[in-house]
Amino acid sequence: MLKSTIEIDRRLAADTVYVSTLALSQVRLMDDARFPWVVLVPKSQATELTDLSPLERGALMEEIATVSHVLGTTVSVDKINVGALGNIVSQLHVHVVGRRHGDAAWPGPVWGSGEAEKYEPTARDALVNKLAEALNGPAEPRGLSAEPTDDQASTDTILDTEPPAADGTIER
User: Fold this and answer.
1) Are 128 and 67 in contact (CB under 8 A)?
2) Which terminus of the chain is more exposed, N or C, with fewer CB under 10 A?
3) Is 36 a residue whose pLDDT tops 90?
4) How far apart are CA 159 and CA 77, in angstroms?
5) CA-CA distance, 69 to 170, in Å (whole number)?
6) Could you give the CA distance from residue 89 to residue 11 in angstroms, rounded to a whole number?
7) pLDDT grade for 137, boundaries at 50, 70 and 90
8) Which residue has the higher pLDDT, 129 or 142?
């Protein structure tokens, strides 16, 4: 069942920056400049795709397709990877990752591939604004502190539902 707020796991919130809110999901940019990478977080307490209703699953697939298209046309990539793991952060979230031949993890998966390299703030904010504009149309430029406003019908609540891994890693 969809909720009016999106409760974001604290690890997802710590590793990402708000981009936009779609009908079903919040879109967040992974703060790792090595890969153009966004995460969709549905407005649900779901942990598995099968926890969503058939209508919600269909809506999520459409949002994945939309975000994949926007990512692929906003930045230069050779391939789009889509994945939903949930082994560390059980809250349902879907990764949409732009890949380039020869990137830091090519041809393997991005998960567990080296240390994240945070974006420079101006580069991060520029990408966030480009993605948000492509998803929603022109809007006011936003910085790191930009989060959904009251008129976006969604707020974040940080969840602390699982302890960090013993080695301190965070699922990406």
Assistant:
1) no
2) N
3) yes
4) 33
5) 27
6) 7
7) confident
8) 129
Phi-psi region of 155 (alpha: psi -120 to 50; beta: other; left: phi over 0): beta
Domain ranges for the chain, please list them. 6-102+115-133
At 48-73, the pLDDT tens digits run 999 999 999 999 999 999 999 999 99
The tokens of 150 are what? Answer: 């009251």
| pLDDT, mean of residues 67-94 | 96
| DSSP string over the chain | ---SSEEEEHHHHHHEEEEEE-SSEEEEEES-TTS-EEEEEESS--SSGGGS-HHHHHHHHHHHHHHHHHHHHHS--SEEEEE---SSS-S--EEEEEE-TT-TTTTS-STTSS---PPPHHHHHHHHHHHHHHHH-S-----TT----GGGT--EEEE--SPPPTT-----
- CA–CA distance, 74 with 71 (Å, rounded to integer): 5
Q: Which CATH architecture has domain 6-102+115-133?
A: 2-Layer Sandwich (3.30)
Cα–Cα distance, 127 to 45 (Å, whole number): 29
